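Case study 2.
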Amino acid sequence: MSASEVPDAFHHVVRPAAMPGSPPLVLLHGTGGDETELLPFALTLSPGSAVLAIRGRVSEQGKLRFFPRLADGVFDEDAVLRHAAQLARFITAARELYGLAPPIAVGYSNGANVAAAILQQHEAVFAGAVLLRAVNPLRAEPRASLRGTPILLIAGASDPIAPPGLSEDLAATLRNQGAETSFRTLTCGHALTDEDAESGREWLRA
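Prediction:
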């Protein structure tokens, strides 16, 4: 199988592992980002990991996303489910193509939200997740078991887009699916900080 033959292909970049045994990372950017946005973050998080960095293919006023929204914080759940399913299929096929072990999702903002949708609805796509500034984009009943899956959620105390309370609600949903969730609130807003990367690195080590 070639990259062009991967089902529901997304534009992406792949970085091979620099250290055997490091968990592969799937990078999912925020609104207005692209496949390069989280590459520096990933180098701090787990410098030896293979990386599959994916570009969202939904455009909102010229800004790339992984699924459309009706307004800030208002989601079209049918669209979320459809786009999450397409992304899940692509990640599964890309793993086979590139010979990747079960990966850790690293999602920021919209990328974290689409990762959360995949975690709720599709089993065995991710071995774990780091969800940065995430909220739950779904009211649909979760279908997937996350028994024993480690997930870290990091919120910003002054984040007006993904306030800590909504991130905690998502953590509870994932915990009810069996995930081993960790939740941290940092003294920051919606933008990522060096402390996000350090917190994620400590979590991965543990």
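The chain has one domain: 3-205.
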